[in-house]
Amino acid sequence: MLSEMIGGMTDHDVRTLADDELRTAQDLFRSTLHVKPITDEEWPQVRAAVQDGPTLGVTDGESGALIGTARSFESAMTLPGGAGVPIGGVTHVGVRADRTRRGVLTELMHAQLTDLAERGMVAAGLHASETSIYGRFGYGVATCARDYTVDRRFARFRSDAPVGGRVEIRTVEAAIELFADAYPRTATRPGMLTRPAGWWAQLRRTLERQDGPVTAITHEGADGVDGYAVYSVDRPQPGPATLRLVDLQCAGPESFAGLWRYLLSVDLVHDITASGRPLDEPLELLLTDPRAVSTIAQFDDLWLRLIDVPTALAMRTYAGESLVLDVTDPVLPGNDGCYRVGPDGAARTEDPAALHLDVDALAMIYLGAWRPSQLVDTGRVRASTPGAARQADRLFATSAPPWCGTFF
Ligand SMILES: CC(C)(COP(=O)(O)OP(=O)(O)OC[C@H]1O[C@@H](n2cnc3c(N)ncnc32)[C@H](O)[C@@H]1OP(=O)(O)O)[C@@H](O)C(=O)NCCC(=O)NCCS
């Protein structure tokens, strides 16, 4: 059926794999990342961490062996304005090393987008191993993130930093259970995703594989648990100890400050590393010496693919004056056309367009990661009327940079 949807029989017929093929698919994916195959002991846990959703596969015509795979699971993504849209989380993408550069990924991507569209997904999202792969399939960098380190010697809270709430050490299980309930309330920033049960199972596996001991904490405010963090500590002998934050989520400024007050109070720690954090996370502003925090990397976070452009445009909010966009989608041509976008909503129109862009560029401005004028200035988007780029900047602006914050 999938091959029918992507244009009939091809050299690489894509099909949905059966449950008893999932381990082979996982091993294939691992081999493409140069990771050892799953052992019999590991498999039950690995299986539990596979989120519900189809795994697609391509088998070799002669040997029948699996040579390519891609999975997706269903989630929801927060949009500017607060609405959520169904999104397919794309993961476990790999093609056997002796079959690469023959179009296997292309077939998988096209089939997966068709499948996600049929399942009512408005968008697809992924975290890319290499940044040159996914633009051709309509994905664009829609959120960015940063890694930072905190030198504990210089990290002192300012006297006017928020106080309140209680931090409690829990077992990993208890912290996850308490926080998984609260998490949807905290996922308010554009680009954040709901986390299915399989995602939390994957986090448990990640925590089990840390070198140092793992600690889980919750923050409780006036309305109950509103934040949590999990971390491990590496304490080489001799050498300075590093506290590695694996996940930290919070509902607001008090829980953010409360969790960091605790983290900075942990004894025998020299520095703290935090990875994949929001670009504007205001830890520096809480401290007497902002240079105690050093950004060590900034990078692309969520690659977004708008599958149902009319719905995606209609679901977010806009500010300023309306404008007509002319969208081109080389993979899903049903999205092609002109859309009037403004504070009253977004809908198809016959009116002439002011901005002309491909669907990957639309994904880059959709959550507010990039200003439309930046894409015009760099040749990614064409403006056909004067002032259109600045007008689009105002329309798509968001109050905070988008962030995904959920790795998969
Ligand atoms: C990335 C990967 C899935 C690509 O599979 P593939 O079957 O070789 O891809 P295709 O043959 O369909 O290539 C499609 C296009 O992408 C390009 N491309 C594919 N992989 C690329 C890479 N790693 N770097 C740059 N370009 C790449 C191809 O050159 C081709 O370009 P074209 O359309 O201009 O001809 C495969 O190389 C792989 O499994 N890599 C290791 C695991 C990995 O990185 N997985 C992704 C996890 S997010």
Number of helices: 12
Helix content: 25-40%
Overall pLDDT metric: 95
The CATH topology of the largest domain: Aminopeptidase
How many independent structural domains?
Answer: 3
| Main sheet record | 7 strands, mixed
CATH superfamily of the largest domain: Gcn5-related N-acetyltransferase (GNAT)
Which term fits the overall shape?
globular
Percent range for β-strand residues: 25-35%
Neighbour order of strands in the largest sheet: 1-2-3-4-5-14-6
Ligands bound to this protein structure: coenzyme A
Question: Which structural class do you get from the secondary structure elements?
Answer: alpha+beta
- Extract low-pLDDT stretches: 1-9
Reported CATH architecture of the largest domain = 3-Layer(aba) Sandwich
CATH C-level class of the largest domain: Alpha Beta
How many strand segments? 19
Radius of gyration: 23 Å
The separation of the N and C termini measures 27 Å
Task: Give the SSE map.
Blueprint: H1 2-5, E1 14-16, H2 22-32, H3 43-48, E2 55-59, E3 66-78, E4 84-95, H4 104-118, E5 123-126, E6 140-141, E7 144-151, E8 166-170, H5 172-186, H6 197-208, E9 214-221, E10 224-234, E11 242-250, H7 253-265, E12 271-277, H8 283-286, E13 293-300, E14 303-306, H9 309-315, E15 323-328, E16 337-342, E17 345-348, E18 355-358, H10 359-366, H11 372-377, E19 382-383, H12 388-396
Parallel strand pairs: 4-5, 11-12, 15-18
Antiparallel strand pairs: 1-2, 2-3, 3-4, 5-14, 6-14, 7-12, 7-13, 8-9, 9-10, 10-11, 15-16, 16-17, 18-19
Bound molecules: coenzyme A.
The site of coenzyme A has 18 residues, from strand 4 and helix 4.
